[in-house]
Structures are given as C-alpha cells and as structure tokens.
Amino acid sequence: MTKKSHISNPDTVKEQLCQKGETYTPCQTPQHDLIDYMRSGFACCRVVTEEGRPVDLIHVKVNKSYEQLTGLQNVIGLKITEVMPGIKESNPEFLERHFRVVETGIAEKFEIYLEPLRKWYESTIYSPEKGYTVATFDDITQRKQAEQALINSEKKFRSITEQMSEIVFITDSTGLITYFSPAIEKLAGYKPQEVIGQRFTTFLAEEDIPLALLTYKKVLEEQSTPHVIELRYRKKNGSYFFGEVHVQYYHESEFCGTIGVIHDTSDRNYHERTRIEYENKLLESKQFLENIYDTVNHSIFVVDVLPDGSYRYKSINRLHEALTGIKNEAIAGKTPQELLAPDDAAAVTAHYDTCVREEKTIEYEENLTFKDKPSWWITILNPVYNNTGQIHRIIGTSTNITEHKLAEEKLKTLNFAIQQSPTVVVITDPEGNIEYINPTFTEHTGYTEEEVIGQNPRILKSGLMDDSVYEEFWKTILAGGVWHGEFHNKKKNGDLYWEDALVSAIVNQEGVITHFVAVKEDITEKKKLWRDLIASKEKAEESDRLKTAFLANISHEIRTPMNGILGFAELLKEPHLTGEEQTEYIELINQSGQRMLALINDIIDISRIEAGETKLQIEPTPINQLLHHLCTFFRPLAANKKLILSCSNSLTDEESVIETDSTKLTQILTNLIQNGLKFTIEGEVRIGYRRKGEYLEFYVVDSGIGIPDAMRESIFERFRQVDNSLTRHHEGSGLGLSISKAYVEMLGGTIRVESREGNGSKFIFTLPFNPPGASKGEHHSVVSKDAPGSLTGTTILLAEDDAVSRILIKRCLQGENMTILDAWNGREAVELAVEHPEIELVLMDIKMPVMNGFEATKEIKQLRPELPVIAQTAFTSKEERLKAIEAGCDSFMSKPINKQKLLELIRLLLHK
Length: 912
Hints:
By secondary structure, this protein is α+β, with helices and mostly antiparallel strands. Strand 6 (167-172) and strand 7 form a beta hairpin.
C-alpha cells in the first residue's frame, strides 16, 4: 500500500513548536527549510498598523536568495521603509499591494521596478494568515532591459522604413507578407494592413510570378546571397508600376523568411521605352521623308535649330519652290530675318520658339508674303530630336490655302450679312426639310436651331391660312419661280404672327433643285400698326362726331337753364307781379340753376376722375337707409310722370351696414335712377340689391326705351348717349354713366347693363361686402351734426371782390345777427384783420386784385395765427386745395356757397 505524504497544518505546527519552547510564526511550516534553497527570493512580513491602518511591513523571514537578489542583509525585524528608504514615495503601489492582499486574502502577481534597488522584479504575494504577507520574487532586470532594447530597435527600424521612399517588406518562409512599410500607399495605393497576411505573388503581374517564385526559392536556399530583379506590381486601381527588388534572407530567433526593398523604376522604364520607340519612329520617319520629300503634295521645309536659339533654313522641296518662287539654293543657310519681311520673320520665329519650347507638333495658320505676293498657309511644325534628346531641327509642312481663304472671306462676309440680317433666312433641302436658319428666325419664332434642323417649316403653320395659298406656293417654287406673299404662322409659345415671305429655288448646273431659300420679315407690328391707324382714323372720326354732338349738347344744356335764369330774372323786374307769380318765377330760376350746377358738377367730376384727384371717404354706410332716402327723394318725380318707383332690400338694417364711400354710392344710384326715370315713359323703375358671396349686387331696372345692341358696349363712354342728335327728346350731358362706372371701379366693383331696344334696361353693379371692422378706409373729418349754437354778436371779415357773391353771402348770414366787415382785395383784408381785433373769422376769396387770397392768408396767419380762415373759390382742383392749406387756411368751401354748410362750418371753427 502506497504511503501517503503528510502535510501538517498550521495548528499542528504551532502545537509542536510550543512543546519545544519555540515562538510560532505563520512562515514556519514543515517545508520552511526548503525555502532557503529556492532560487526565487522569499520574504515573510508582518503588517504594522497605526490607529487601525496598515502603514508598514516588518521582515519576519527571508531566504538566502532574498539577499542575493536584493543586495539587502540582516533585514529580519526591520521595516521595509528602513531597508529601502524612499520606497513610499517612489513605489507607493508596492506597499498598497501588500496591504490589499492582507485585506482581501486574494493573491496578486505583478512586475515592478523598485527605484531604491534600481531593479525589475516579478513577484507573487499572498497572505498565509491575517496580518502577514509572503512574497516570492525573481530578478527580471536583464530581461526587461533586453525587451526595451528590442522595442527601441523595432521603433528605430520602423522609423527608418516609414521615412524611406522605397517600399520595405518582410515575408515568412511560406511567402506570406508580415510587414510592408507605409511607402506602399503612395506607390501602389494600398494601406499596409491591406497587404499584410497576403501572399507576395498576389500583387505581381501574372507573367512575372514564375521569376519571382524562382528568386524567392534561391534566396531561402542560399541564405547569404542577395538578389536583384525587376518585376511589375499591380496597383490598387488596377494599373501597374515597375519595381526593382533587392531581396535577401532574413532570420530572427525562430522566424525566417525574406526582407527586401522595392524601388519604383516606372519613370526610368517609361523613358527608356519612349527613347527606343522615338528612335525607331525617327528612323522610320527619316526613311519615309527621304522617299516622299520631293513627291508629296505639300510644301516641305527643314529648319535647323542652332545652340544659340536661332534658326536657319536647311532646305525646301520642289513644290515649295514652285509655290513661293524661291529656289532651294537661295534659302539654304539663311535665317527667317534674311528671307522674310520683318513682321513675317517675327511671326514665324515665334512659332518655331513655341514648337521648341513645348516640344510637340504644332499647327497654325499664317499669312506670308513671297516676292510681294501675299499668301495664306496652314503649317505644321514637327520637332526632331538628336541623340542627346535635344531638338536640333524642325520639319515643316505647309498647304497653300490662298484661293480657299479668299473664297472663305467672301463666304464669311455673306454669312455675316445673313447672320446679322434683321430678316428671317431659312434654307431647306429639296423635300422642304430645314437645313439652316439665321438667329433672327429664333428671335421671331422662339425655336432654336437644334429644334428645327431636319424639321419641315409646316411646324409654324397656324391652321388659319387657306389651303389654296400653300398650293399656289408649292406650284410656284417647284417650277423654279419666285413666290411672294404673306403667311399667318404660329410661334413656339403659341403666339400668332404675320410674315411677308419671298421664297425661291436654288438650281444646280444640271437644272436640278438642290435647295429652297426663304427670306421672311415679321410684319405683325406693321399689320397691327396699319389696323391701329385705321382704327385711330375711325375713332378720330367718331370722336369728331361725338365732339360735335357733345358741343351741341353742352351748348343746349347750358343755354337752356341760362335762358330760364335770365328770362325769368327779367320777368321779375316787371311791376304789378303777384306774389304767386314771383314765387313761381323764383322756383323756375332755382330749377334752372340746379340744372346748370348739375351739369357743371358732372364736368368737374369727370375731370377729377381723369386727373386722378378723386379720393374715397370710406365710412359705415347703412344701405337700407340710403335706398329709402333715395326712393323718398325721387318718388315725387316719378309720381309726376305717373311712374311706379319701388325699392327692395335683401338684408336686415343691421346687416346692411357696410364700409364704403356713401357719397359716391349715392351718386351712382342717383345717376342710374335719374336715367331710369328720364328714359321711361310709362311703367315702373325698381331699385334694390342682393348679397352674392363677398359682394353686394345692386340693380336699377326700368321699363323704358331700352338700348340698341350696337350701343351697349359704348354706353359707359364719356359723352355717349343713345340719341346724340339735335332732335333727341331727353336732356343731359352724357357723363352720368361714365362717372358711375368710374366710381364703381374705384370702390372695387364692376358695372354692366342688360337691355333690348324698346324693352327697358337693367343696370347691375357690385360692391365688396365689407361689414364695419372688416376693412379700414380713408376717413375724413365732417361737419358736426350737433345742435347749432348762436352766432349772435360774432364779427367776421368778408374778403370778396365780386359784388354779387358779396351780397349772396351777406344774405345767407343776415338772420344770424353777425357783424360783417368788407374787404375788396387781399391787402385791405390784412389791414382790417390787424385794425379790428374783434374779428373772429375770415371768409377769404382766393382770386382777388392787389393781393390774392393765398398771400393775404399767409400774412394774416403771421400776424394773428389763432384767427380761423375759410377759403372760398370757384376753383375746386386738388392743387387749389393744397395751396390753400399750405397758405394756412383752416377750411375750404367751393362756390356756389351752400348757406347751411357755411353756417355749420363757421360754428365748427368757432366752437359754437
């Protein structure tokens, strides 16, 4: 039976030592004698603590190798920090490892450089018992130094190879690449990591692989003999480069293989091949030139290039002699300056310089003079190299193109004329397919040259021409004649246009038609101008008729009320008139005056519209209320003519309020209602409106005489009436509908009429439906409608040079118990304003003698800035109003003066 080995545990050892009277430590095991014979160092230490924290180690047991490996002796009982001073600062991790092993009980193996001993150690630490550590270690300083030397050597090797322009490589004994320097990326496009691990034959040209394998085998067999070969290597992009390879045997430790350098010889090989190729070509060229020199159908000349950069002619061939009139004997050895005019010599010398400088064949066109005769040539210069690679000769071949050049110049002139021609030029083949167009064609039709070449001109057909025109066209040109006429064609963008065309056939010497040429002119504008001229003539004639009728109409419209005013005014002078007769005459005078004023207002309104001076005054307008007032106003007039006047609303009173210009809307409806009542003999006139989406549609319908079809389009034109004759039955200026149309459009709407002669008319216009707050218009201050205050005791200055106007104003103000001071001109008005401080307001006429109202107002405002001034004038233009405001006027009234408005304005300015 095999005897089992007995290993004592620490408790047994402790008991045995105590029986012998010896002190026990954890390092005293039955095998402790063996420790002294270990080649590795051994140290057992006890942990020293302070305040419960480990701070140091005390040597308890060490073996002989400890002293040999560390150089430390008699360390038993000494602290580590005592035998190795400074270790806490230089190697704090050394003590920390011991403390950590005691704490965790987990052994640790590590390498460490101990600064106090200046040596490297490989150590293993474990804890045999709480508070103790055991460390075994070996000196690895030499190994570490060898490793560092190897690392330094490798770094140096890599640094050298990475800076070399040549590729450095290493392969193992099987031909696998184990190293490639970075130069491979620049030469072949591969990154080193892309080729390492590959066989070196992978990157060789197929035909070079056998030679490479044979060389590789020899290097491994012979070992000491280096080899040099040239191989073709494949780049990453698929191309190849030549590389001269220096390779030899490589052995390191257990590794063997090859190491080598690859030098790029592509340029050297290229130049060598080029040189050989060029020499062969030069030899062939020389032989070829010798054979054809005097038989070729070109002028040939040979120029020697001298070392100083000058040129001398060597020879010319026979054709060159014939074309230039210069013999070979006369040209040989001469410079260009000796043979040619200065400008010609400078030009050819510059070309020779270019050929030599660029070292290549050049071609150019030149103009030279030989024996006072100018000639044109196409010349080709070919450089010739000597055996040192220098250009020592130039061989030139020239083709005389003088006749061709003269013909070309004529063609250029003709082509330039066609290209710049303002008319369209088109050339087609015999089948009518387009072969040429000039730029004007593109300008007129929109088709580019690329779009029409090969196309038939029928692409321009509009389909509006009669087929007989095209039949006559083809019949004429196919017979060899010239066709002249007009086409109504269509452009690329679809626009129609007219063109005047002249088309003829081009016939060759055999009488066969080879082409057709068309010269065409766009006459769209001409035809339009002609039509416009005719229309303008007709319009002028119509305008003349309208003007004659209008003047007759206006004369009638002015003279009729004037006749009433003057006639009844004269009758008022007769004595013994009854009160009723006086009242009747005054009423008739007032009606005539109102009619006259309406005519003048129409003329002023249309003038303002034409001048763009009409402004909108947008304000909330109750439509229902406005229609009600109009119906109430016109109902007596309708009753007098025994007509029915009705009004229709489609919205509630609240809904009917919109933002618009109530004055202009009232005038529009007034004009339409007046027309309806004027032209209706019997029946009715209906007015109303309805909402259609975002618009209100107003209508005025009558059962009157209606409008002829021919007049419906022009009824809204100025001075137009259904009847402009002197026998017409209805008064009026013919401006009402024109003014209404202008106002409707200004308010954002449209107007139209539906009518048939004898069946009445329906005028319809729209306005945007803008409830209050939906849109913001231009608002103007208006005269206050508050209850009027008393003007008794007020003193005003009346500056007026017209006696009638003065009397009228005084009569208007007579019932207000005011004091009125008179001034007959502007200067007198200024003086009275200064002399009478009690004056509270000035009524200033603009047009006065001595000093006009503008100047007088300026002076009064300088002297009495607080004094209100109301400008009054028969002029109502925008400029007059602006001048009055600039002069300092506080308000403005147009003549004739309305009594009520004048009183309201005076109260407003005097705050009464």
